[in-house]
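Good morning,

Attaching, inline, the backbone tokens for the sequence recovery test we're adding to the shared suite. The designed sequence is right after.
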């Protein structure tokens, strides 16, 4: 890569890792765990690494330190820090180690001591090196390979980087996690480690050749940094890709639940809403999970408020029509979808009955009490576990406009006149 292109790529990666670090820091405030703290630290470290590794940042640090090549030391130490943290994160995710806390502590401590020892040796060798002339920021490895101390510095760096990345790759390949999000991250980490190891594959022969006085492989060494960038991008995807997918899925689910919310909350009692903001159709960018969780709770509260208005007739009519299926409107529905359609029919019928009473005059000028069930009426899906409620309500929201629901409501309305609440 040219210096100009390197500046653009490195600084872009730095901005990406900084945004991810801030995102993880916010998540850390809500859920303070060791893996999340290490993830935020690693991303923040990567931000400084790429900012200093960019030629403009490299020269700025060199001018500040009075040594043109000084930025190499914090950059390489930062690289080791990033990938050592990734390695430790995968160890903390290992369910086999988490079941043996003492073994986990010894394993993590051993790797930490090893990484700290390598960093100490790198600092010593770098400070003893004779960096008597400025070098191209992208070609430090080959420009000073003839210096024994630089050669030892690079040998420790590449050996430690190889050990860390290959062991992390092996760890990622061997782990099987129950959390699909973490499993996805592990797979991405494995690919990222191979990309970073490409830096060693390209850099080691170029350094060895340069140490012998041959600089024909210098460009191959520079290409190693491209492998490192690719590995970092894949790693960032592993840390955020599945989370981003969850984020957009939550936003989509919030919008999909809007018709059901309008039916059982806005159409029943606006006091059921947590706040006046609950009615908005556009979800704010932040706290998506919280707002979605709140919407589910409000819908469940609205459903409970409708219980005294529920009638078994729409449910019976819907199941009867689905069983006949002579006109094809109920075809293709799975068991859970049919149950959701029955719930949708019951809720729409209950809201209709409630609104008819509110619109009809009653003696004394007041309406009957519409709050709270006097005799709770069971709905299809009432026994759904709390963790599965969101998926069930999404099916109910989708079924509100299904033709089978409309047909069931039409038959139930024609067969019985509107009635008051269940006594």
């Amino acid at each position: 890569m040219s210096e100009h292109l390197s500046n653009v790529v490195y600084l872009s990666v730095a901005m990406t890792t900084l945004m991810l670090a801030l995102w993880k820091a916010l998540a850390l405030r809500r859920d303070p765990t060791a893996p999340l703290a290490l993830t935020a630290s690693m991303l923040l470290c990567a931000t400084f690494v790429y900012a200093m590794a960019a030629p403009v940042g490299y020269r700025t640090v060199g001018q500040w330190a009075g040594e043109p090549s000084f930025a190499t030391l914090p950059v390489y130490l930062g690289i080791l820090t990033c990938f050592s943290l990734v390695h430790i994160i995968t160890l903390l995710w290992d369910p086999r180690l988490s079941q043996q806390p003492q073994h986990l502590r010894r394993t993590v401590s051993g790797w930490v001591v090893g990484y700290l020892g390598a960093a100490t040796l790198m600092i010593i060798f770098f400070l003893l090196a004779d960096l008597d002339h400025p070098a191209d920021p992208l070609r430090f490895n080959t420009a000073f390979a003839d210096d024994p101390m630089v050669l030892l510095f690079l040998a420790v760096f590449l050996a430690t980087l190889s050990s860390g990345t290959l062991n992390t790759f092996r760890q990622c390949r061997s782990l099987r996690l129950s959390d699909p999000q973490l499993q996805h991250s592990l797979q991405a980490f494995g690919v990222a480690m191979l990309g970073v190891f490409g830096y060693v594959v390209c850099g080691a022969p170029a350094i060895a050749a340069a140490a012998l006085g041959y600089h024909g492989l210098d460009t191959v060494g520079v290409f190693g940094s491209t492998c490192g960038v690719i590995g970092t991008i894949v790693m960032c995807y592993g840390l955020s890709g599945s989370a981003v997918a969850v984020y957009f899925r939550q936003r989509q689910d919030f919008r999909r639940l809007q018709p059901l919310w309008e039916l059982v909350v806005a159409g029943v009692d606006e006091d059921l809403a947590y706040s006046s903001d609950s009615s908005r159709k556009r979800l704010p960018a932040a706290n998506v999970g919280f707002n979605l969780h709140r919407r589910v709770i409000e819908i469940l509260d609205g459903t409970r408020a409708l219980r005294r208005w529920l009638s078994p007739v729409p449910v019976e009519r819907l199941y009867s029509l689905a069983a006949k299926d002579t006109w094809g409107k109920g075809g293709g529905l799975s068991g859970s979808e049919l149950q959701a359609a029955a719930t949708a029919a019951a809720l729409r019928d209950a809201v209709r009955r409630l609104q008819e009473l509110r619109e009809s005059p009653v003696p004394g000028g007041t309406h009957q009490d519409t709050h709270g069930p006097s005799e709770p009426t069971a709905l299809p899906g009432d026994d759904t576990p709390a963790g599965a409620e969101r998926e069930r309500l999404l099916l109910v929201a989708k079924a509100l406009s299904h033709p089978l629901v409309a047909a069931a409501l039409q038959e139930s309305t024609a067969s019985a006149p509107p009635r008051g609440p269940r006594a």
